[in-house]
Each structure stands twice: as C-alpha cells, then as structure tokens.
Amino acid sequence: MIYGADVSIVLVTIAILFVLTYYKKWGWLWREWLTTVDHKKIGIMYLIAAILMLFRGGVDALLMRTQLIQPNMHFLKAQHYNEIFTTHGTLMILFMAMPFIFAVFNVAVPLQIGARDVAFPYLNAISFWLFFFAAMLLNLSFVIGGSPDAGWMSYPPLSDLPFDMGPGENYYILALQITGIGSIATGINFFVTILKMRAPGMTLMRLPLFCWSVLGACILIIVAFPALTAALALLLIDRIAGGHFFTMLAGGNPMMYINLFWVWGHPEVYIVVLPAFGVFSEVVATFSRKRIFGYTSMVASIMVITVISYLVWAHHFFTMGAGPGVNSFFAVASMIIAIPTGVKVFTWLFTMYAGRVRVPAPMLWTLGFIPNFAIGGATGVMLAAAPADYQYHNSYFLIAHFHQVLIGGTVYGMIAGMYYWWPKMFGHRLNERLAKHAFWWFNIGFYVCFMPQYFLGYMGMTRRIFTYSPGMGWATWNLISSIGAYMMGIGFILIAADIIYSAFYGERDTTGDIWDGRTLEWSLPSPAPHYNFAVIPQVNDRDAWWESKQQRLEGKEVTALQYKSPLRPIHMPKSSGRPFVLSVCFFVAGFGLVFNWYILGILGFLGVGLCLILRSFEFDTDYYIPIDEVQHTEKAYGRLLHGEQ
Amino acid sequence: MHSLPRAAHLPIEYSTEDGSLRIFGFWVFLVTDMLLFSCFFATFAVLYRHTGTGPKPSAIYDVRGYTAETIILLTSSFTSGIATYFMRRDNKSGLVTWLVITIVLGLSFIGLEVSEFVSDAVTGATLQRSAFLSSFFTLVGTHGCHVSFGIIWMTCLLIQISKQGITPVIARKVFITGLYWHFLDVVWVFLFSVVYLIGGMY
Ligand code: HEM
Ligand SMILES: [Cu+2]
Known about the structure:
heterodimer; A: mainly alpha; 67% helix; globular; B: mainly alpha; disordered N terminus; binds protoporphyrin IX containing FE; binds copper (II) ion; metal-binding (chain A); Cyt_c_oxase-like_su1_sf (chain A); Cbb3-type cytochrome c oxidase subunit I (chain A); transmembrane (chain A); heme (chain A)
C-alpha cells in the first residue's frame, strides 16, 4: 500500500510538471506567485496548502479509523499505525491549523486595519516558503526513509537515538524547526502590523475583534514558539551530535523536554483557536446585522486567555509525579480559562439575540461550533481536575476531548472564515447548496465519530493502540466512530467539490460588499487591488464601514470614511525570488541533516547565509505606483474618486 | 506602508517610517531570542549537576579565560555605543573607526572562547560526555554563534558605509546591529553569573 501511495505521489508530481510546461505557465507562476510579497496572494497560497494538508491528515485519520473498525483487524501493521498517528497529529497541528490561521491573518488583517500590506512583506514571504518547504520535508519522509513514529510530541527517550534509529524522527525535528522559524517571523510581523499600521483614527478600542484575536495569537506565538525551537534543537543535538540532554545515561533528563515542549504545546492550542474566536465574532456581528455585544469584555477575555494559557502547561503531565502542590496550581489555572471562554460564548449569543439573523455558510459553521465548544469545554474542565485525570489520562476520553475543541473550534472557525472571506479573495462566492450539504455531513459525522470515543475512554480504551481483542466490548462504539469519520470525509469532499464548482459557476461579487459587512475590507472591490486602498481611510468609529453606510443612508455627508484627500503615488515593496531560494536552501540543509549528510547540510546553510548577505546588500527594494496607474485601476473597478468624475 | 519623508526632530535611524517600524520589529525579535536563551538557561540550571562520569563545572572552568572574555565583551558593547554616537553626528570616519574596534574586540572574544572550548575538548570534556557538558556547550556556544553572526553582519555594514555614507537606511541598520550587540552583552552578563559563577561553585 505504501508503494502504491509512493507511485501515485510521483505520478501526480509528474502530471503537474507536465501541465505547467505544456501551458507555458512557469514564467507566470514564478512572477505572479512564487516571488510575490503581496499579503493577499500569500494568504491564498497558505489556504491552498492548508486544505491539501487537511486532506493528507484526513486520509491518515481514515486509515486509523479503518484499522480500528473491528477487533483484530489486519489492515495496518503496528509500525504503520505508529507512523500514521504521529504524522496525523503533527500535520494537523503544525501544517494544517497553523497555515490555515496564517491564511486568514494574511487575507483579512491588513484590509481590516486599512493598511496597504503587512509591516514586513518580504519577511512574510519568507515565512510562507519556510512553512511550505518544511511541509514538503515532512511529507517526503513518507516516500524516502520512513515517517516519524514517536507520537506528535516525540517524547524522549522514545525519540532518542537508542530507541529510534531511523531518519523518521530527524524529519520530524527538522521540519518542525524550519516551520517554527517561519511562524515566529509571522508572529512578529502581524504583532507589529496591528500595533503600528492601523489607519489613522483606528484606536485599539476601534480595532475589529478578529484583529484583536490575531494580536493575542501573535503574542502567544512570540512567547511560546522559542520554547519549541529550544526543545527541538536540544533533541536534535542529542540525536545527531551525541548530546545527553534527554538520554537515560550520562545524567540526561527526559522531563526537561516534556516541560519545554508543553510550554509551547499548550499555548499552541490557543494560538490556533483564538483566531477562530475572532472569525466567529466577525461572522456573528455581520450576519446578525448588529454591533457585537460587549466589545470590551471580548477584548478583555482575549487578553486574559492569552496570559493564562501560557501558565498551564503542566496539566499535560499530571500523572508524571510532580506532586500535589504543582498539580493543584496547574489544575486551578486550567479551569480558570473556562471563565473568559464562557464570556465569549455568551457574548456571541447576546449579539444574535434580537438581531436580524441570516444563516449562510459562514454563520452555519459558527452556529455549529457553539454546542461543540460547550461539550469540549466541559470535558476539558473534567480533564483539568488533576485527580480525575489519573483516570482519563491517555485514554480515548482525551482523544475525544481535544478533537472536539480542535475540530469544533479551529477547523470550524477556519472553514467559517474561508466561506466568509472567499468572495474577497477570489471575487466570487461559494455555492450555498453544496455548502449546506457539506456542513451537515461534516457536523453530524463529527458527533457520530467523537461522542462514542468518550464512552470508549470510560471503558478503558487507551490512545495509540493499533488493535484490540473482541472480548473488550469496544467493538460497537468503534464501528460507530469509524462511520462518523467517513461521514466527515464526505463532508470534506463536498467542500472540495464546492470550491471547484464555484470556481466555474460561482456567483460573482460585483459590489465588494457581498454580506453587507461592517469592517473596512468590505469597502474595497473584490478581489482588492494589489495596493488595497487607493487612499488610506480615516476611521472615526468602530465598524467603520458600517457606520459610513449608515450615514450615507441618512443622507449625511460621509465622515467615517473619507476619500477626499488627493491621490498620491503609492509606495510598494518589490517582488523577490529570494524568499523562495532561501527556503529551498533551508530545505536542502534540513534534508542533509536528516540523513547525517553533513556536506549537504553545510552547503544548505551556506546558501542560507549567502541569501541573507545578498539581502543586506540590496537597497533597491521598493517602487512607486504612479497616480495615473492608480486612477486607471480604480476606474476599471468602477470606483471613481471624489471630485474626479 | 513605508514613506520616505524625513522628520527632522528624530534621530536619523528613526527618521523614516520604515526605519522606526523595523527597529520596533527588531525589539520584538529580541524578545523571542531572549526566550530562546531562557530555555537554554533553564536547561543548564536543571542539568549542571548531572555530570555523569564527566568532570564537574569547577574542574573545567578557566577563571582567567572567562574573566578576560567578559571584559572584552563589555568593552565592545561600549565601543559599539560610541559608533552610534558618531553616526548620529554624521561623522563617517568616527563611525567606521569605532565599528572596526568593535569588530576586533568581538573577534578576540570569539578567539578566546574557541581556545577555551578546544582545551576542554582536549581533556575529554566534550559535549558527548555528560548532560552538564551538553548544556554548557549548547548555551555558551549559542551565544558564541550569535556573536559571530554579529561580526559578519557588522562587516557587511562596514562595506556598505564605505560605499554609501550615512543614509537613513544605513543608520537604521547600524542602530539595529547595535541593539543586537548590546543584547548579546546582556545575555553574557547572565551567562557569566549563572554558568560561570553559580555553576563554578559546584
Ligand atoms: C477529520 C477528522 C479526524 C479524525 C477522524 C481523527 C482521528 C484520529 C485518530 C483515530 C487518532 C489516533 C488515536 C490513537 O490511536 O491514539 C488521532 C490522533 C490525533 N489527532 Fe486526529 N482526527 C481528525 C482530525 C484532527 C484534527 C483537525 C486535529 C488537529 C487540529 C487532530 C489532531 C490529532 C492529534 C494531535 C492526535 C494525537 C496524535 C498522537 O497521539 O501522537 N486530528 N486522530
Ligand atoms: Cu494544555
């Protein structure tokens, strides 16, 4: 089966190369996409990658569920099962959830704050390509050498050299390290963007809630990812340089890894879920046609979650003997997070209350999320009770819980965001009928899949077992759970079908404001011109675009958004191929280290160094778009500027 | 985004919008770098008594060596400050001179550190020997790599200054390398106290 997969990967690659060559698209691809520094295009590339990785991770999930469908199945071998749950977890968290949130960051943040790009567009491109080539590196493990198999947390000593010789673990470490560097850069980039690039008049308390949640996520990235970098670096030193950080000999201490890992790992969960909360806030306000209820308490709860989620990592190893004092602290801190989260859920409900609620696809996913999160939150508090965790630890109860929040929170949120901003990205909307079918297949499948796993946990089924014997009484629930997984698979296929169908037949968005939106991105045409705003808007209110529409309806002079100031030439960064080349060099270096081919590794790093030096000597990095061209573009969009009829 | 008009009342490196944006971004980067070092410090603090069959910290530390390193690095931080001072006065030769002095000091720091590492390795105290030594070489070595990177960076800047003189872009770059260099100095102060002083007591 593995060989079959290898062959099909090679065939697909050849087919893509052939199509590109046949239609002479190489130059176009390079000029328009591979070298772009435009945040909107980078966002689209993140989105495509995230969906592909969701597919790959989903196939892994279905393989596992197929293996567990009955007792004593012989579909996968134990080693395959280990590799699959490891790559499934790793891919889903780092190569699906992360790029998915970065996709919506890139698509929405600069437009919402009235900026022409992110603070560091060139760095933004580097972040994307580092992620992309890291993802390629990890996926390559499946074809060359063997996949990692020590679980997505890769705890030593299991992941240390004596217990895990093959290159699989090296792939894991290097791929995560490379994408982690990119993520830190993205965190810094959006942190600075939101703090420094807001349009005049947009005070922090006028910032759209999505941007607030991105700010929270970026703070967490900045404080949490260095711990992952450190943990992986030390593990790599253990593995390829013979270090003794986490070994069982010469004084190593595996607990040190576990602590460092979760200092990153727990905040990571909030890094991927906070932006989803942000999307829900935008969606609920837009489709209830109401200003969000309790804006200030929303902001406060985002910041409280940001701080507390950094302080609870040890709840991931209550059972590893830290003692009652430590466990109590982390148990209480973990439970406290339920309070701000509850605040948010009620704020969404109150916003809908007495609003004129419409339920197109983005709203559907938002409504679907609320019960999920209520259940996931409740089981989370159950897990946070340290003594009870001795019972649930590493059982299917845990599996059910974290899928309930990761899928019910992050995946639902990102899909809602995708439907919501799709018209802004591509200029057409996705088909509603297909979207509804997809939602119901996925949502019902979701409960069918994960509810039985709570029971399985209570019945003593532990995670990461590749088969079980018939006498355990687990067979029925496992069968039901697997059926649910297939239903979710159908939901996913319907989403993919919707994307393809709508690319040809989707309803065009001619107004740029297809949902009757509230925030600045809806004041632009869809898709937005590459400079975003011909004139930077002046913001006088929260929900600036909505307010300006209200004023126009009342026949007043529009003050909220003024396009009166004259056009000026627009200063933009130049495209560059170097982020791509730099990331290829990282890939080469990583690939060399995976197999301990130090020459290749050193060559890769020399390439990286050379790219950095060349950048340092480059001064011609930006250009001006002349006024004529801006005017021309705006006219083509049917947008004549004030006084220039 | 970046617009180029200069504001006269600000120091030259902050005079463009782009310049102040990048300097702010670099501060945030320093936060992440500091956290990376914190993790290595924590690892050292946990592991420095875990010497296995290898030597204890006090057995391999060379007091004169690390004292000299400390003095040299602190001085270089000072000289890099003087370089910034001359840059703000628009004094190109002053800037170049003090940058060169900073680079030379940095190089001698690295030289001392490398000779310290080599003499440890010769006595069999290598990274592979014990958990203590792994954490020692990783923490001190990471700092050393940062310093080397800074030296290369400043050398590149030196070439650019000699070609272009002091422009807002150059000034921003010089200022950022200065921040980086001071940051490495601060890290070294912790390194000196935790690794050499506290570690040396065991
Ligand atoms: C699409 C539906 C999904 C299904 C049917 C599914 C199913 C599974 C299964 C069967 C396991 C292995 C349980 C075991 O034997 O220990 C697993 C583990 C895991 N899943 Fe999923 N999953 C899905 C989506 C996701 C998503 C969206 C995420 C994250 C965003 C995710 C993250 C994880 C993680 C972190 C693990 C633990 C891996 C490990 O133990 O090392 N899954 N999943
Ligand atoms: Cu946690």
